[in-house]
Every structure is written in C-alpha cells, then in structure tokens.
Specification:
This protein is about 20% helix and about 25% strand. The protein is of the alpha+beta class. The chain has a single domain, classed as Endonuclease/exonuclease/phosphatase (Deoxyribonuclease I, Chain A, 4-Layer Sandwich), CATH 3.60.10. The strands form two sheets. It has a six-stranded mixed beta sheet. Strand 7, helix 3 and strand 8 form a beta-alpha-beta unit. Helix 3 packs parallel to helix 4. The longest helix has 21 residues.
Length: about 260
C-alpha cells in the first residue's frame, strides 16, 4: 500500500501536475494540502476519471486539505478542540485495505510567522490540539498515518542553512519541542525511520534560486502509529517534481506499507 502527502500550493493551478503524479506514482492514498479553493471548485471530475475518490475540506483563497483514495473512504473534517476555528487544515479518513483498514489524516499545520504575532500563538495552540487528538487516536491501536505539511523543521539537518531559519516560526525551539512531544506519544517519523541522511528536503522557496542551489527544508512529514510503522517498507521523496514547469514549492513524500 502506497500513501503519499503533497502540498500542491493551489490545486486549480496544478491539476495537470496532480493528474500526472496520480498516473505515474499511482498511490493508493494521496493527502493534499493548500488547495486554495472551495469544495465546489475542486477538480472532482478529473480526479474521479483518474480512478480516485476524493474527500475535500476546502476554503476560499487559502488553506484547504483533501484525501484522494482508490478505495471508498469514511471521512471526518476538522481538528477537534476549538469549535471557533474555521480554518480548513485537517481531514481524516478510514481507508479499507486487504480486509482491514488504515486511518489517514491530511494536515496543513499553521505557518505561524511572524512569531511575535497572534499567528504564532495560533500555531502553538493548533499543535496542542493535534497532540491531544493524536493521543486519542493512538488508543484505538490501529494503523494510523498523520501526513502533511507540518510547517516544522524538526532539526538542523532538515534545512540547508539552519542560521537562515533561527528566528523563523518553523524552527523556533517551542515549535520543535511540540513536534517532539507529538512524536514521543509513540509515533514514528517515516523518513527518519529509513534514513539518517542530511540534505533531504521537501520544500524549496521560489525566491533566490533556492531550488537551483538546493537550499531546501524538510517540513512535509508522515508520522506513523506503531501498527503502521511495523509495516513500513520504504520512504521516498519525489524530488523531481520541483523541477517541473510552474511547480509547487513542495514535493510529494511517499511511503510503502507491507
């Protein structure tokens, strides 16, 4: 079973990129972030013609998450813990597979910049809610994959130039501490379970030749419950897509489960 995550940075602008990825990589499940459209504007027809069911939690102009699946899915929208939060940043689905099921979430965690504003307080509060929800999900003792754009650089090896990010909300100590708290609930970072290499990135800014100079950061992660981690075969960063014409600034990360 292949499960992938990808911040497409506008699904309407990248529909052709997305359809090509579905044809070539053919993941069983694909988690999308930063759709930047309402549900009605999502390319339903094209996705269904490609052989996928789609569950969408959209928002006008920004945010937006989705889960695409070859199999029919049961869906829950929104992260529990704050009924007043209207940001479309979390969607969760139960995906049947081989007589059982896996639970998959697509996550678009807040950026939090500038860190001296309410945006950073919202990021930390959102992470606290995610930690609480993950703790509940782990009690179910089932294969669980929390996948998405976490907007977190976990460690210095996850960015080409740590000094450039030292005061950024993605790399601040409080951000990294909460990410560790989440992982320490009993989750496994799929990439780091398969390699300790530095220089593995999932995002390259559009500015200052970041892609050409490989000045990237790793902020797209798949966190696995013990029941999913036991089945982990490999993790792949589909880096080549960043070299496409008019690409997303993120690339997909894909895992294979036995």
């Amino acid at each position: 079973m292949q499960i992938a995550t990808w911040n497409v940075n506008s699904v309407r602008q990248r529909t052709e990129h997305l359809l090509r990825y579905l044809r070539e990589a053919s993941p069983d499940v694909l988690c999308l972030q930063e759709l930047k459209c309402v549900d009605e504007a999502f390319p339903w027809q094209e996705i269904e013609a490609a052989g996928y069911n789609a569950a969408v939690h959209g928002q006008k102009g920004f945010n937006g998450v989705a889960i695409l699946s070859k199999a029919p899915i049961e869906v829950t929208r929104g992260l529990p813990g704050d009924p007043a939060d209207e940001h479309a940043r979390y969607i969760e689905a139960i995906v049947p597979h081989d007589g059982g099921a896996v639970r998959v979430a697509s996550i678009y965690l807040p950026n939090g910049n500038p860190p001296d504003t309410d945006k950073y307080a919202y990021k930390l509060a959102w992470m606290d809610r995610l930690i609480a929800h993950a703790k509940t999900l782990l009690t179910l003792e089932e294969p669980l994959i929390l996948a998405g754009d976490y907007n977190v650089i976990p460690a210095a090896r996850d960015c080409a130039d740590p000094a450039a990010w030292i005061n950024d909300a993605l790399f601040l100590p409080q951000t990294r501490a909460r990410f560790r708290t989440l992982v320490n609930l009993g989750l496994t970072d799929a990439l780091r379970a398969t390699t300790d290499d530095a220089g593995l990135y999932t995002f390259w800014d559009y500015q200052a030749g970041a892609w050409q100079r490989n000045k990237g950061i790793c902020i797209d992660h798949l966190l696995l419950s013990p029941q999913a981690a036991d089945r982990l075969v490999k993790t792949t960063i589909d880096k080549a897509l960043r070299g496409d014409d008019k690409p997303s600034d993120h690339v997909p990360v894909r895992i294979e489960l036995a």
